[in-house]
Design goal:
single chain; alpha+beta; Protein Transport Mog1p, Chain A; 7-stranded antiparallel β-sheet; 3-stranded antiparallel β-sheet; disordered N terminus
């Protein structure tokens, strides 16, 4: 009897741990679009943050936003994921194109490397320091030619934000945990499609 209760407690604990881990999971997907296969990007949501793919993100034309507190509509302290069909030849070309546009808008802005390591796909980061005293951390990732996509994570912060380093560390962790997978529609969606 004791073994049964112990096993039951262990299973309940394991189930609770699995549920807690899933509570932090972030998954955003895009369906097959022309020659671009369906895709999913997975990462982990920081404690106390909210994820949105379908209301605020859609309103500003991106795939996902992560934010803390109430949605203000301002870009400060919001992590933004954007996914698009790959057009430029390399990841470095994406970064150089972005840098060129940034310096055209703010010739006095400073550009520095934002180093990070994503074990699942190549990523390159940059930290822009604007003349407007706003900093933009931007990271471009390439899930590979077969994916047909590129993606970027970005976040804007006031240069003198007291939590700047902590926020950049959180942002870095979200990006480093990002993983690409081919999108698999839910089984019931496949069954419906097969019947029509």
């Amino acid at each position: 009897m004791k073994f049964g209760l112990g096993l039951m407690s262990l299973l309940l604990w394991a189930g609770a741990t699995h549920a807690a881990a899933n509570d932090k999971a972030v998954v955003v997907s895009g369906r097959l679009d022309g020659v671009v296969p369906g895709w999913s990007i997975h990462t982990e949501q920081p404690d106390g943050w909210t994820q949105d793919c379908c209301v605020y993100a859609k309103a500003i034309g991106v795939n996902l936003v992560l934010y803390k507190g109430e949605w203000s509509g301002e870009p400060d302290r919001v992590m933004v994921l954007n996914v698009w069909p790959a057009k430029l030849a390399t990841l470095d070309a994406e970064l150089q194109e972005d840098r060129k546009h940034y310096l055209q808008r703010d010739p006095a802005g400073k550009v520095a490397a934002f180093p990070l390591l994503n074990a699942g796909m190549p990523c390159q980061g940059v930290l822009y320091q604007g003349n407007d005293h706003k900093d933009d951390a931007v990271v471009f990732c390439d899930p590979g030619k077969a994916s047909g996509i590129r993606l970027s994570w970005s976040m804007t912060l006031a240069h003198d934000d007291a939590s700047r380093q902590d926020l950049l560390s959180l942002f870095k962790r979200v990006v480093e945990q990002s993983r690409y997978t081919v999108y698999q529609p839910p089984k019931d969606a496949k069954d419906k499609a097969a019947r029509h």
